[in-house]
Amino acid sequence: MTKVIRIKCLLFLLVCALFSLNGCGGGGGGSGSTPTTPTTPTTPTTPPVGSNTVALELGTPVKSGNTVTFPLNFTNPSGYPISGIEADIGFDSKAFSVIMIGSNPASASAGEATVLADKTIYQSKSSTQKDVLHLNIIDLGGKKSIGSGVVAYMSFSILPGAPAGSYTFSLVVNATDSSGSVKTVEVTNPAVSYTL
């Protein structure tokens, strides 16, 4: 079991490094880094608009016991070549927490669109924002496009003694094609509310 966790951690670090190299979250040259040739910034390619719009949205939250769960729905009616999704899910830490297994976040589980595209969900708590869960939905080959459907089911624990009131979950998204080029994805429902 420990070996599996180590392998998953190594894969996660590799994926983070790949995203950093592709401009999806920083990266940087520390001492001893190899100089690189400057490149022209990539302009996001916009998918078709209208009934063929590629979009991601937060679904309706549902409570089960001490957990609130909602789907992360992806719409890609024309099979636009989206092969990776990077998303930040914001939540209110006064009322909710990320589900953990040991020291690893486990709030996101793969939906059918992720499974059918042979993708894996890598998740981490933001190092700069305590109220954000960061997701990467990718595979190391990155060739297969993600089709329409649920890409993830998001679950958050309700904190004991959480104050009654209305709370918001939010969504910020980046996407890439198989070559790592940034693609524009519309966020049709960037926030959902849940009342305790």
How big is the Rg? 17 Å
Major sheet summary line: 7 strands, mixed
Q: How are helices and strands ordered from N to C?
A: HEEEEEEEEHEEEEEEE
What fold name goes in the CATH topology slot?
Immunoglobulin-like
**How large is the count of helical segments?**
2
Integer average pLDDT: 80
Q: What is the CATH architecture descriptor?
A: Sandwich
What is the global morphology? globular
Domains, number: 1
Contiguous low-pLDDT stretches (5 residues minimum) are 1-51
| Extended strand count | 15
Provide a short characterization of the protein structure.
With 196 residues, the protein is mostly beta strands. It is 13% helix and 40% strand.
Keywords:
40% strand, 2 helices, mainly beta, 6-stranded antiparallel sheet, 7-stranded mixed sheet, Immunoglobulin-like, 196 residues
